[in-house]
Amino acid sequence: MSKISFIQAGLFTTVQDGGRRGYQSLGMPTAGAMDTYAFSLANALVGNDINQSAIEATLLGPTIEIDTDCVFAVTGADMGATLNGQSIALNRAYAAKAGSVIALGPAKWGSRGYIAFAGGVGGSMVMGSRATYTKAAIGGIDGRKAKNGDTVELLCPKAELRNMALRHAPSGLIPPYSAAPTLRVTPGPQSDYFDKAGFDALFGAEYTVTAETDRMGCRLSGANVPFAEGKNGNIVSDAVAFGSVQIPSGQPIIMMADHQTTGGYAKPCCVISADLPLAAQLRAGDRVRFAPVEINEAQAIYRRHMAELNEFIRIIEHGFIYRHRPYYTQLNGRGFAVTVDEIV
Amino acid sequence: MEHNGVRILSLSDSALCIELGQGIDRETNARVHALCRAINAAGIAGVAETVPTYRSLAVHYDMLKTGQDELISALLPIIDGIGSGEHAEGELIRIPVLYGGEWGADIETVAKLNSLSVDEVIAIHTAPEYPVYMLGFLPGFCYLGGMDARIAAPRLKTPRVRIEPGSVGIAGEQTGIYPIASPGGWQLIGRTPLSLYSPAREKPILLEAGMRIKFYSINRAEYERIRAGEEAE
């Protein structure tokens, strides 16, 4: 069995994947990667399915030794990654030899980094997912964060991949991460718990990310959001989504990957899927604004982002052939099928 | 939007919240479960998962396969189809409970608060069928309706740091069972030897929303016997 070993575990390093899907009706949170985009990109760079299990680091990354030749990529927050002491670029696949050490340090910006290995990483599989959910102690490494000396299996390590030179994401593919992002939101189910004064406060103010921010929720502090007359933050409990903005008593909380499936607080809006990666990279002291968009626009933005990622995957998997075009032509009365491969 | 008294709301850019009512009552909740079953059976393209709650149903979907308007169009006939009539009752599950002692350390407090004997508390707690309105809060945690107000008790002023899995408690006019070890402020009256949540089991979570449960009192020997069987699984 090939494996990675944590020489230094880092602050809060877990195995994550695309999440535990299909069990929310039983109260089981999906968990899974916080910055789903950086996570997907890391997998794409090493030729994996975008939901394959990978390592998620938090604020202070781990130092990992690999015991076999394997291709890997680091994405998300810049934790100053090195391979055997040499700086390596983010968002690029590298082939490493057995015995190599991949070291991540403190995040220079952002809070979550991803290390994907070609073929994926192991860890315990519960209800169809390896995602670590620490509250129920399931998935990944015994349902907890990594500690020094832990090992995780490399499921199907690959010493090399084709088109290594192309396995480098262009900057246009990286979300506009920022310590002061504007998160776009669509309406939530309790929009009617807030009137103009409430939305003016929410959309007019800048909020500060507090230290009580984790995989479950990003707690903000700033202008108080008033409730409409006769309303308060309590509702008859209903379902919660990744990105739901809850207002228990005036201060917003963005519900993140480990959010409970249901909740009893008013939700005026929800961060759009395309901007959740920006929310996932927030750290204490960062500043956030909210701006409303229509659902159809939010969906169009997300589809565009995923189409761009899929186009990138197509290029790196199929090499220089950028576009494959069939033509039909006639010459001296005879028909010919001609294909043109456009190359970059 | 509103459609024949049903509110169809956005929960996120990839989830809808279909609100069938405003309060907590058996009839509204039964309609939520009927709608949940009908949508799951319909196999609509892009629907990822459904989450029934007290009075609404969340429909999480894959926006690469469908869009909000398209999904609502597909859901409207199903919403119309469930009507407002009677719905079949869910499966009845009997839950054994060892009441009192170290397994239910607060049962005497609950009895005293309500001027009852411990046996009366047990008799009142085991009498009704409790509908499982929804699951949430923790994997396998059931929100139950139907507790008799004669055994109501406020939450503890200082929550316990750790409550054992299977603990049966009372908070206000609600009763519930802790599926996993957790901190909590409920007054504990007993413990079930059944594992409500066991991740390695084929069906990891025993109870589902829409079921009904009935508690019955067991002694120490029965508790140990059932517990041994659960652990052997």
What's this model, at a glance?
Chain A has 344 residues and is an alpha+beta fold. Chain A is 14% helix and 33% strand.
Overall description:
The complex is a heterodimer of chains A (344) and B (233). By secondary structure, chain A is of the alpha+beta class. Chain A has 3 domains: 3-173, no CATH class; 182-293, Cyclophilin-like (Cyclophilin, Beta Barrel); 308-343, no CATH class. Helix content of chain A is 14%, strand content 33%. Chain A has 4 helices and 21 strands. Chain A has helices at 36-45, 196-204, 276-280, 295-318, and strands at 3-8, 14-16, 54-58, 63-66, 70-78, 82-83, 86-87, 93-96, 101-103, 109-117, 151-153, 182-187, 207-209, 217-221, 234-239, 244-247, 253-255, 262-271, 287-292, 321-331, 334-343. In chain A, the strands form 4 sheets. Chain A has a 7-stranded mixed barrel with strand order 12-18-16-17-14-13-19. Chain A has a 6-stranded antiparallel beta sheet with strand order 7-6-9-4-1-11, with no helix packed on it. In chain A, strand 16 and strand 17 form a beta hairpin. The radius of gyration of chain A is 22 Å and the shape is globular. By secondary structure, chain B is of the alpha+beta class. Chain B folds into 2 domains: 2-82, Gyrase A, domain 2; 92-232, Cyclophilin-like (Cyclophilin), CATH 2.40.100.10. Helices cover 26% and strands 30% of the residues of chain B. In chain B, helix 1 (26-42) crosses helix 2 (68-82). Chain B is elongated. Chain B starts with a strand and ends with a helix. The A-B interface holds A 21-29, 126-127, 135-136, 138, 186-189, 191, 236-244, 260-263, 267, 270, 272-273, 295-296, 298-299, 302-303, 306 and B 9-15, 17, 19, 22-24, 36, 48-56, 58, 60, 63-64, 67-69, 134-141, 143, 179-180, 197, 199-200, 204-205, 208-209.
